[in-house]
What does this fold into?
Amino acid sequence: MHGVIISNLKKYVEEKLGEPAWDTLREKAGLKDKAFIPISMYPDSDLDQLIDAAGEVTGQDRDAILLDFGAWIIPPLMQMYRSFIPEDWDAVTFLMNVEERLHERVVRMKDASAKPPHINVSELSPGVLEVQYRSHRNMSALALGCVHGVAQFYGGSASLMEERNDGGSHRTFVVRISQGAAENRDAI
Ligand code: HEM
It folds into this structure.
């Protein structure tokens, strides 16, 4: 797993649970003193163990943590990768392009060891998107959280209309995106 995700998990945990919580989670995860930097790759098991430890500490289940973290991580990712995101995109355009323009062109092509999920998005009717999550990682709740985060980033919201299990860890979500005024876009 890309260090950009785990180093943001550290910031998320510190913001939600206070600074000392990161050390507690690393210790519970068997990763005491391990540092995570945004330009390195780490075993997927590191992230899984940190999420399990966060579940132990907060009493939340894994999917609830991934959903919340997915929404939280979008603004920092937008900030880091802002030069790849056209100014005139809105939430729907962003989601329709995330696979090809970000996961493929920015993540996979630049780092052969990164394996971001395939997020295939199609617009069923205006503002209603079908979002397919395809990954070996069983983190579809993170993907749904990211959808909420993108909608909120552009000043709107997302509501889940339908969810399908497509076998293994593959999932399909149907979401309605209510567009906002995009005032956040100026902030990045
Ligand atoms: C600025 C936008 C985004 C950037 C730069 C970005 C980048 C990344 C990177 C670097 C990873 C780690 C990949 C790896 O280590 O193999 C990742 C993972 C992930 N991304 Fe994105 N992403 C973005 C937006 C999104 C959106 C909008 C979604 C969902 C709709 C999404 C869903 C996920 C999920 C679920 C993972 C976890 C890994 C997995 O399940 O296999 N991302 N992303």
About this structure: The mean pLDDT is 94. The pocket of protoporphyrin IX containing FE is lined by residues 1-2, 4-5, 77-78, 81, 98, 102-103, 107, 114-117, 119, 131, 135, 137, 139, 142-143, 146-147, 150 (CB under 6 Å). Residues 166 and 172 are 7 Å apart (CA to CA). Helices lie at 3-17, 21-28, 44-58, 62-80, 91-108, 140-153.
